[in-house]
Amino acid sequence: MRACAGEVLGAWWVGLGISQEASDRRKEALSAFKRAYATGDLSQELIAYVDQRMRVLQ
After folding, report:
1. pTM for this structure?
2. Which whole number is the average pLDDT over 11-28?
């Protein structure tokens, strides 16, 4: 099965958020997670992960 562009883009933003959080760039990580969520194309598992990370970072 081929992923659509939105799914890839959403996952890319999640990856960026993870990287930024690991680099202690909390504000940028939160922004990336918000962008990932806004794509509307995340799996249920990624939505749950992004929601959890945004709560921690706010």
Report:
1. 0.87
2. 97
